[in-house]
Amino acid sequence: MSNPWADWDHIVKLDPDKTLVEGETFEDVCETGTDALEIGGTLDMTQEKMQRVIDACAKYEVPLYQEPSNPAVVVEDDDLDGYLVPVVLNAGAVSWITGAHKEWVRMDDVEWERTTTEAYIIMNPDASVAELTEADCDQSPEEVAAYAEVAEQMFGQEIVYVEYSGTFGDPEVVGAAADALDEAALFYGGGIHDYESANTMAQHADTVVVGDLVHDEGCEAVRETVEGAKDAKKTAAESV
Ligand SMILES: CC(C)=CCC/C(C)=C/CC/C(C)=C/CC/C(C)=C/COP(=O)(O)OP(=O)(O)O
Ligand SMILES: O=P(O)(O)OC[C@@H](O)CO
Ligand SMILES: [Mg+2]
């Protein structure tokens, strides 16, 4: 798989278990200016719910990726541009590092040319994803940087994902991860809710991921985060 995310500043992550704001459509989401859609969540995922969102987004231009939270929810669909499959580096339960993946490969004919892993470092202990994976979220900036380096240099990961799902994280942690990476892309997600929060994290991360906001506040709020992320990239480009 080539890496289209090299051009992504902003992703909207759609949770198939949540609804859009009343009166809004997936077309509105696609028109926020986001660079890609990732479909996934931790709790109560099913293939049917995933499929519904894929079908609703298929006809728009924005690249569409599934982020499966377990092998049973993977949807085979040509409308998807690909699969971004988490590997949780700081999981307490080894299943989320390799076990689920082993089962997936055993069960399915994985389309490797459309599949890339995301090396997650989970940092918010209150997130469902932290509970599920029994993640050890007590990590200093130096430790997160070390995880990022391990991901890229030892495990050849193309994407490292600093995940604060549900809360705005520490920019110092994200900056440390960014400094540790050479070629790998750094995704940041968690608590981005306005221009400023998107702008701050996009100064460190290559790509910011916006989740809850689209479901809770809607597309106008998401559009502001797109602007915040894009402005951070513009400013960085101007200063070199
Ligand atoms: C091998 C395959 C196909 C899948 C396994 C993939 C793995 C390791 C998943 C574990 C981590 C996980 C559940 C990632 C899903 C994406 C994610 C982090 C969503 C954020 O979820 P939360 O915001 O915590 O959950 P809710 O919004 O559902 O509460
Ligand atoms: O829902 P939020 O807090 O925006 O987090 C986005 C994403 O990183 C979740 O996997
Ligand atoms: Mg969530």
UniProtKB/TrEMBL annotation:
GO biological processes: glycerophospholipid biosynthetic process
- UniProt binding sites for Mg(2+): 15, 42
Q: Does the keyword Lipid biosynthesis apply?
A: yes
GO molecular function, one example? heptaprenylglyceryl phosphate synthase activity
Stretches of the chain forming a coiled coil according to its record: none
Q: What is its EC number?
A: 2.5.1.41
Q: Which cofactor does it need?
A: Mg(2+)
Q: Which domain of life is it from?
A: Archaea
Which stretch is the leader sequence?
none
> Which pathway does UniProt place it in?
Membrane lipid metabolism; glycerophospholipid metabolism
Instruction: Please tell me which top-level EC class this enzyme sits in.
Output: transferase
The cellular location(s) given in this protein's UniProt record come to: Cytoplasm
Principal location listed in the UniProt entry: cytoplasm
Q: Where does sn-glycerol 1-phosphate bind?
A: 13, 161-166, 191, 211-212
Q: Which GO terms describe its cellular component?
A: cytoplasm
Record key words, sorted: Cytoplasm, Lipid biosynthesis, Lipid metabolism, Magnesium, Metal-binding, Phospholipid biosynthesis, Phospholipid metabolism, Transferase
What CDD domains does this protein map onto?
PcrB_like
Q: Quote the catalytic activity from the record.
A: sn-glycerol 1-phosphate + (2E,6E,10E)-geranylgeranyl diphosphate = sn-3-O-(geranylgeranyl)glycerol 1-phosphate + diphosphate
Carries keyword Lipid metabolism? yes
Q: What does this protein do?
A: Prenyltransferase that catalyzes the transfer of the geranylgeranyl moiety of geranylgeranyl diphosphate (GGPP) to the C3 hydroxyl of sn-glycerol-1-phosphate (G1P). This reaction is the first ether-bond-formation step in the biosynthesis of archaeal membrane lipids.
The record's comment on protein family reads: Belongs to the GGGP/HepGP synthase family. Group I subfamily.
Return the protein name: Geranylgeranylglyceryl phosphate synthase
**What organism is recorded for this protein?**
Halorussus gelatinilyticus
